[in-house]
User: Fold these one by one.
Assistant:
Number 1:
Amino acid sequence: MNTTTKYAATALAAALGVTVLAGCGDDGSAGPGESKGPASKTVTLVSHDSFNVSDKVLKAFTKETGYKVEILKSGDAGAALNQEILTKGSPRGDVFFGVDNTLLSRALDNGLFTAYEAKGLDTVAADTQTDEKMRVTPVDTGDICVNYDKQYFADKKLAPPKTFDDLLKPAYKNLLVTENAAGSSPGLGFLLGTIAAQGEGGYEAYWKKLKANGVKVVDGWEQAYNEEFSGSAGGKKANADRPLVVSYASSPPVEVLYADPQPKEAPTGVATGTCFRQTEYAGLLTGAKNEAGGKALLDFMISKTFQEDMPLNMFVNPVVKDAALPELFTKFGEKIDTPPTVAPEKITANREQWIQSWQSLVLK
């Protein structure tokens, strides 16, 4: 999820002529994680680089609570989480956003978060509430799926793949590019999707066949989607030659939103039988200097105001059950009703072994 949102946020920033999302703290505010006194009116949100929110929504939070938000971006999701682990107990901020279900156990095992039951949690989809101790609050979901270049398949008079098993067919040899599961969130999600679909006893054989069918592995999403995938705007400029890529179900609306002029149909599609559901969480950092402000921010992040702002800023789905999706999502996106996933405790127990096995099978 965070890589597609990075693409979206970067494109939006370019369109607006800015390079970063500014926080709403005033010029005299304390630095990240520092308190301006016993009743600090600044709350610091630590996140990955993909976090994006409308200024009007941040202003609404300030008006409602009196707290101003400072946003400290810290690289991709894994890097941001690692920095918090290194500074645990003396955090750089009050709330951390962006740890997903593939890495959640690392955060919880390191005691990064203080338990807090956010107000409005009863409106959040029950299947996203995986931590019984309330150490994290679900904020959004997204589906990692294979995307395809519609024009390529139309020109070849070839039906695009629909399922994981389809990707093994000779017709799709040398067409797929994916990300390294050891260092990329969508790459790891795709690996977990194959484990969910093929079973722990079948995923290794599946990857052997996928490798034999010419899957290409690159370091990360940016390279895969914008340099290797022929269906993206970036890929077209780079003369990319892979019409299948591991990305997100929300990628087609991104291609429409940032096209000039906007097309009547998304140029890319989603192989809906190749998806894996991600959930992103936020939590109150243990040792937060502004605990009250952090709790207020967590409450706000599951309000309809914040939830309905996310789709066109971070290209993710709300977790609040009655939050409305924008027309761009409903018209051009794919709704994945029952994507496979893997229980967090199973990911905890097996993640490193699965990654090592994948590396030995695919990269050697």
Number 2:
Amino acid sequence: MSSLMWYVYEFARKAWADAFTNAHNLPDISEKPERFRDFPKVNKEYCIGCGACTVSCPSPNAIKLVRDEDSEEGVGLTYPVIKPGACIRCGFCAEVCPTDPKTLECGVNHQILPEFNIIPSKRQYIVDDYLCIKCKKCMKKCPVEAISLVDDKLFVDQLNCISCGECIDVCPVNGAMKAVFVDNLQDQKNLIVLCVDYLEEYINSKEEDLRTLEKDGLLQYDVSISEIWDEALKIIPDNEIALEIITNAVNRLKIRIIDWDKSKCEKCQLCIPDCPTGCISFDEKNDTIVRDKDRCLRCSICYQTCPFSVIKYFIAKFSMEDDETIHATVKASNLNEDIFME
């Protein structure tokens, strides 16, 4: 009886009566709230084909890029296509879409915080074991425990790394922890080659210093990157990225320098058959020994073969002192230390 009275009381309540009399019809219910995320709408004319949407999508096969066939009017458009059966309407594709206006729309597009962005970072954090002193400060500082000791080497788990950069901030050795760029790898290689060639040419230009350097002596130079900066920006037209790539390369760079004093050469030609790349030859017309620098491996075999000490062999190391200056240190090579121990 008490249960029946409770139901009668509920039906008699004013709030229930109001709700019943003011109930929405079907069209009213179908109107979605402003922040509701439906299946993404595609404005294919805005698409730049970057693929950010496909990378961000957590649902397999929910979104893919397609390209229309070319026609007489022009090149076919590239744009994303949504598969409703797989789409979970999370809206990540619209959030990461870089075009303005948006190629993809699905309700209100609010931004994901950078630390939770599931788009892979353009930087990949790695440990340079050549420079690492295994102090483990990076491992202790990492907020997500992405750095661990594996086979006595510090290792960054790229699946766990959130690219926060705290490991670089605490690393006491310049260049031991690196944030390398994973985009435009060929451009990066070209930029590094430009820098290496410039530094080698600079050291080779110091012939007088090299030839008078004592066995235990040391040469030091401050080399400005201004000479190659314009050329560097033609390869990678972003000041910050170009400088960072050069810095990462320079801080671990070691170049072997071959100096050839032709004025003292006795033309015995013993170096010619021993050269593994055939870069040394005898120029009969000019009666002199010739070395092709582009083919030379700087392996030091000619240096070891020459009985008259005409050929000199040096090791040059480098570090970035600031954003404009590379500090170079040059010493005469000790083969036991610099060749066989490497």
Number 3:
Amino acid sequence: MRRVTRIALAGTATASLALALSACGGTSTSSSSSDSKGDKGLAIAYDVGGKGDQSFNDAAFEGLKQAKAEFKYKTADVEPTDGETDADKEQRLVSLAKQGYNPVVGIGYAYGPAVKAAAAKYPKTTFGIVDDSTVTAKNVADLVFSEQEASYLAGVAAAKATKTDTVGFVGGVDVPLIHKFEAGFEQGVKDTKPSVKVLSQYLTQTAQEGGFSSPDKGKTAAEGQIEKKADVVYAAAGLSGQGVIEAASAKKVWAIGVDSDQYAQEALAKYKGSILTSATKDVAKAVYSVAKSVEDGKPESGIVRGDLKSGEVGLADSNPEFRNNTAIQDAVKAAQEKIISGEIKVKTS
């Protein structure tokens, strides 16, 4: 069960989708069902990188697909635009709420100001925001995760897998959210094997500079770390992480993916032999759960956190080389038990 701290009311309004979205980002999928009432349900607005990142945004879309299939209603998912402002994001969310979509979820911390403003304008609509806990309103669910816990386990795996005693971390943007990934990873490495060196690099200072949406930047950063003998590279960089995985594959070293199980992503199939594991967070479940809460008449509100104990963060084991490596599995299992029990306190910065 997800832990819910507050409850809010929900409601809807209606209007035309295509018209309202023309000025604030295109709709990649707007789907209807055979439901005779024509109800509108979950709508999501993607973060930078958009649909097709094989990571964060695609995980959110999986949650939308599950809600659509189960609740038989119309859904919408909307792409970001280059160089957009907070006002553009707000317009996008307001447009979806005005049309009657409920809930409306912003995928990514960058939607913070937009969610706050839109929620104030549509108090009977439930809004969600992934990866941000700063928006406090009765009709807003802050969908957050303990990413540092999964990253700690990734660090344990990296420390057990490295043969050069050097591993790398590539962060998309130098912000507190990604600092959690780095902190957990480095702590996991050092607690497992103190002699291992951790090389860290951030691609950009702001998302607008492309840190989450530039595979070329990720590839260049990973190549630099590999030249310095890193033989395991962990990326928390959205779409840019694909470049990290490509570089690892070319140099025949390990990559660790993020958010989704990237070993299982079709678009990354030619690189999957180099994807040791992925530090996952169940964005799909978070998005689906807020939709279900609205459908059940008890909308989620406040901070709703997924962590290792709830099973909403962890390590993917699709790669048989990872799954069948007894030394790695024993170390990861031991660390997981200690985190859940509280024996290990994972840093967030």
